[in-house]
Every structure is written in C-alpha cells, then in structure tokens.
Amino acid sequence: MQDFEPKIVAFVCNWCTYAGADLTGTSRTKYAANVKIIRFPCTGRIDFMILMKAFENGADGIIVSGCHPNDCHYSTGNFHARRRWIVFRNLMNFTGIDTERILFSWVSAAEGFKWADVVNNTVAKIREMGPYENYNKIAVSTLLKEEVSNHE
Amino acid sequence: MSRIGVFVCHCGENISATVNCEKVAQISKELKGVEFSTDYKYMCSDPGQTMLKEAIKEHKLDGVVVAACSPRMHEPTFRKACSEAGLNPYLCEMSNIREHCSWVHPKDDLTTEKAEDLVRVMVEKVKKNKALNSIKVPVTKTALVIGGGVAGIQAALDIANCGHKVVMVEKQPSIGGHMSQLSETFPTLDCSQCILTPRMVEIAQHPNITLYTYAEVEKVDGFIGNFKITVRKKSKSLDEHLCTGCGLCTTKCPQKKIPNEFERGLGFRPAIYVPFPQAVPNKPVIDRENCTYYIKGKCKVCEIVCPTKAIRFDQEDELVEIEAGAIVLATGFDVLKSDFFPEYGYGKYKDVIDGLQFERLASASGPTMGEIRRPSDGQIPKKIVFVACAGSRDPAKGIEYCSKICCMYTAKHAMLYKHKVHDGTPYVFYMDIRAGGKMYEEFVRRAIVEDETQYIRGRVSTIYEKNGKLIVKGADTLMGAEPVEIEADMVVLATAGVANHGAEALAQTVHVSYDAYKFFAEAHPKLKPVETNTAGIFLAGACQAPKDIPESVAAASGAAVKVAALFSNDELTREPLIAVVNRQAPPVFSSCVGCFLCQSVCPYQAIEREEIKNRNGEVIKTLAKVNEGLCQGCGTCVALCRTKAIDIHGYSNQQVYTEVMALLND
Known about the structure:
- The complex is a heterodimer of chains A (152) and B (666).
- The longest helix of chain A is centred in the middle third of the chain and has 19 residues, at 77-95.
- Chain A is built from 5 helices and 4 strands; from the N terminus they run E-H-E-H-E-H-E-H-H.
- Chain A is of the alpha/beta class.
- Chain A is globular, with a radius of gyration of 16 Å.
- Chain A has a single domain (8-151), classed as Rossmann fold, CATH 3.40.50.
- Chain B has 5 domains: 4-134, Rossmann fold (3-Layer(aba) Sandwich), CATH 3.40.50; 142-234 and 317-332 and 500-571, 3-Layer(bba) Sandwich (FAD/NAD(P)-binding domain); 248-305, no CATH class; 334-498, FAD/NAD(P)-binding domain (3-Layer(bba) Sandwich), CATH 3.50.50; 579-648, Alpha-Beta Plaits, CATH 3.30.70.
- Chain B is 28% helix and 25% strand.
- In chain B, helix 11 (355-362) runs parallel beside helix 12.
- Chains A and B meet through helix 1, strand 2, helix 2 and helix 3 of A and helix 3, helix 4, helix 5, helix 17 and helix 18 of B.
C-alpha cells in the first residue's frame, strides 16, 4: 500500500473554501497533490448524488467544504448543505457506503493554513484506508450505471 | 465537434517553476475537441491576450480554457479578451494551476499531472458551456454608511460631495466615534475635537445626507445596486423636531449617578443626556434602563421642565426602510475588556486605567477638565507607568496581531503628561517601538529626548498595590533582563484594539466575511483593501483591522470612490450565472411539477409562480419561475429539485457531472 496515491475530489464553494485554497497558494503553504478542487457557487448547490458519481468514477475520498455556519455568502446555503449531509449520511450508511471517506468541513477565505491541514489530514487518512474498491461492488452503483447508460 | 483552445500560462516562473507548462499544453492538444493549444510566459499581458484573440479568430475557436491563476483573479480579464475577439465571454473558463497547483506542490511529475487533470476538467466543462448575455439591473444612487466615526464621516462626506444621497446610521446618540473621545492626536498634537467637530456639523447640515443616530441596521436584503435595508431607530423618548437642545432637562434630571460611557466610567451622567457637549445631533436621549420614570413609573421631571414639551415617554422604536445601491461599513473598533488583565489589576485598582480613559483625563472637556488626576483620590501622579502591548502581540491571550496605534499614542500620552505635570516622570514599558509613518519616528524621539520619557524595553509581569502605591514589576531586557520595580502613582495600559462589540452579528446581517479576530475581511489584502467579497459593500476604517486616524480617513475616501464609481452608471451589468427553470413543448411545458420546494429554500425570494393558461384562460399548470433581478446564483434550489427542472448557468448539472467524470478518468 506504500505507493498508493489516493484520488480525492474536493467540492468547495466559491466564496469561502475556494478563496481559502487560493490563500493557501498565495502563502505558498505546501500540501499533497492528490486533492483536486471542483468549484461550486455554494455548498448549497452540491447535490450529494454527485459524491456518488465521484466514487463510481474511482474517487477514494471526498472533501466537501464551504463557509462556516452563519458566514454563507448567500446567507443559508451552507445550512441546507449541512442538513442534506446529515440525511444523506444516514442513507449512505444504510446502503453500506463508507462515510468515513467523506470529510465535511468549513474553511473560510481567511483560513489558508486550515485548508492545507484539511487536505493533508484527509490524504493521510485515505492513504491508510487504502483504495475504495468496495464501492463498485455495492448494488447502488450498479443501478446508477444502468441509469447512466440509459441516459447515453 | 468542439473547437476548444487551451492556453497555458507560465506566470513568469510562478507556474513554470514547478509545472512543466509545455507538457501540459502538449497533452491538452491530444484531448478530444481541442483544436489549438499553446503555452506562454504571461497570458494576462497584452501580447498574451492578443495571442488569445488571434487564436480565437484564426482557429475559429468555440471555447477557451486558460490555465493560469485563480479565476477569482483573472477570469474577467480573459472573458473580456474573448468577448473582444467575438467569442461569447461565458465560453471561456480558467483552470487554476497556480494557487491550487504550482504554488502548493513541489516540482515533480505529480504536480504536472495535476495541472493536466485540471485543464482536462475545464476542457470538458467548457464544451457544455452556453453562450450567455449579461443581465442589466438599475442602480439606486443612495449609499448607506454604517457607523459615524471619523471613517464613516469621511466616507459619507466624500460620497455626498459627489452628488449622491447618503444615509448614515450610528448606534450611539451622537456621531463622532472614538475620535471624539481623544484629547490630542499624534503626531501633530492637534486637538481631536477641533478637527473633528466641523466635519460632524457638516454631516448634520449636508443636503445630501440623512442622519439616523441611536439607530441600528436590523436587516439587509437585496444585492449590489439594489439593497433593501431595515433600520431600527431606537426610541429617544423625545420629539426631535420640538427639542431645541437647550439642555435644561439634563441639568434637572434627578438621576445623576450613571457611569458615563463617553468618559469611560470616569465621570457620571444623568438618565436624560447628551453624550458630550459637541454632540451631533445636540439633542438628548433618555436611557430607559436607568431612568426613574421607566423604573418606578413616576418622576417626569424632564417633561415638566422642558420649555417646548418635547419629551415623549410613550415613543416607540421606529423601523425605517432604506433603499441603497451600496453600503459602507465603518463600525470601528473597541478596546479590550477589563477582565483580560488580572495580573495588571485593571478593574481592581482604580488607578490602573486604559489608554482611552487617559485620553479623557487629558481632555479639556473630560472629567478633570484636562488635569491629569488619578481616579482614586484626585491626586496628581508624580510617577506614571505606561504599559504598551497590553494584550497585543500576545498569543497566550489570543491576540497575536499588533494593534498598531498603541506605540504612537503611548508616546503621545507620555508627552501630554509631561506637558501638564512638569515635575513628573513618565515610564514606558515596551516590546518594540513601531513608529512607521510620516513624522511618527520623530514624534517618539521627541517624547524620549525632549520630554524625558523613560523607555524600558521589557514586559510587565505584575502590578500590585502597596502603601498607596502601585508596584510595577518588570524586566529591562536591554540590561540583561534585570528586574525593574517602579513605585508608580498611576498605570496606563495600552490595551489591544479589538473588533467592535457586535461586529460578528453585523457581518452576518449584511453578509460580509470576517477574520478569526472578527474584523471584517477585505476582498484582497493588497489590491482590494476597501472591498468586501460581497459586491457593493465596502469597508472604511478600523472595522477591518486596527488603524490610526490618517489610515482610517484614507480607507474611507477609498471606499467612497468605489461607491462613486458604482454610482457613475445608471445600470449595472450582472453575471448571468443564475438559475433557470427548463421549458418544454406543450403539453408538458416543463419538467417542473410545481412543488415549490425551491421557493422554500431560496434566500432571495427569487422564485415566482408562473401560471400556464389554455385558450379559455384556465390555469392548466403552475411552474416555478426565476426572477432574474433577484437570483444571485447560489444554486441551492438546483440541488433540491426532485425533477431536475431547475438548473443553474455556469454550474449546471451537466457541467458539474462532466467535471467529476473528467477529473477521475484520464
């Protein structure tokens, strides 16, 4: 497992965490290259089905991060994301998807160092957990795949 | 088949030092739909942009990906360049290979691979982008200035003098802020009131300015150019039109022993009061918490003595609705609370005071009429110790930053003291003297040389009382950390400047971000120092970080220019990255089923109901419809929609799913 490089996708909001990650860059704080960011306007926009899509396509871990509670650029988007996450997490636990591989975090535009920590800690954790090979064995993904092929 | 152009920027060496830009460009060329790909030293430079424009025309590109810095930095630049080359600006995307890649990773293959991944994601995304047109919205040419200290005053006057309307809201009964409490100001020693009060009067008399004192912002809705603000005007228990400000009520009020906030507790005021003689407006308010009538139900002395019958005991708070195009936050700062310094005995010993209290003692209008007398027994202190960095630069106390103004005002205090008590000795304990600024270093020198202030480099460990003296124990680090003990008559703590009480709540009300210390956050620390991340909201003065008067004023004028620039247009162009409900041919009309869950989560009330009628005028279907003026494009509705009928431009379901798949499948 030594040379396993986890693939981690970060779904972040534009106003806090994306800007925070920009600050990490501006302050030249180093972190692992395994995490790649996809920008959303707000965590409220993140339809959690997209996390499934990421796992289905081979992600080993996921970070979802936005503004701290009460700091949302759009007032309440992060609260909706939080609520949705709580419900969704239960659903995932029920279906047998490993919720330990998803990190939900708040990183503000001023927390460049925190972003580096979040990334490094997640990479270390996922590296220890190993590749997420189990996902595609679970029935849910098979159904998803059928749905996708129907679309195509 | 798409014709995408990929442009990889070296950013000098910022990117190319760790990312192999040539390779990224080469690999990108192999991607499906990529027609043209190149790398260049500075894409944002004129030649870089010209190259982009020429490539768009020459290769008939229908999508552009610029792999460079953060889109938060240069997205507008490249979108404009595309637009000039005849390509719809929303067909241009940026891959952030600087902040999110080259700056945070070492030079190795993984870093270049990550850059390739990030480019591929955007190539796939841009294929799904749609040509969009920006939205025009009208601008309300009124500015709201929150806070009436020197920064707010400057911003309001500058905006008003540009010919725009200004509404100023101040929490206290008078404008003036902390500056009105100061005695004399560094480095010129001109009297604070003398330079401030003319400006305060100008605010009150300016035809373009409406002033609400004793008022607070309760709610902010809307967006740049079109804010809707609710202001609570707290009841002053007074008819301001009838009151002439004669002040008879304040002299007759039987309740006289209320600690005076303006004097920082060093003096008293009645329950009906004007905070200070030069207050604007110079009309009293009743402090209901301490007024005998409101406590016991009888008294009404002020009502009896008032010659114009202006007192209104039953007056209620008033809510005022304001429409404004821009907001300037100028809510200032606060100083640390007393319980912060148990080792210095602040709050325990009457003669340990803070810097603002010393300002009041030194002020000609203060509780001692400008004589330096210690609070406990009114004696003139012969030995006075000033402790700089009381709280500041102290990670153990949670304040790691330098409060910036204390070095200067401590030197000033020592000077003022020496000017008034010629045979006294001022001591200053300091960590470093930070006197950067025009004439600042010279000023500190003057305090040391001309006014014989004893500067001791070291921190004070403890202060305690013994035989009526305050024993100040510290160390002199320039004498080999030799212990120093001074028997002082009075101690002044240069307490740290902290974010104003309530700053966090206000930030949440107006939707701006704030830092770990609760100071409001600017959009960019260097290049956008007076803007916030929320369009149309600007910062002035010490609500952002500790600032001295010249800096606050400069920031306020900066914010005012930003507002004036915004108001120079009759309408604003807004990004069209907003939600939209799909429409289909009859009889379906839309996949929207009219559940209106989107309406329940929309923070902007931007979801309307649209009724589809048949020829007879009967409603056959009700759909959700997005109000383009109100939608801010957060996309919360999109994630919630169960039929995926609502989608958002720029972050559509198709786009984000494509991004995820492109990222993970190379």
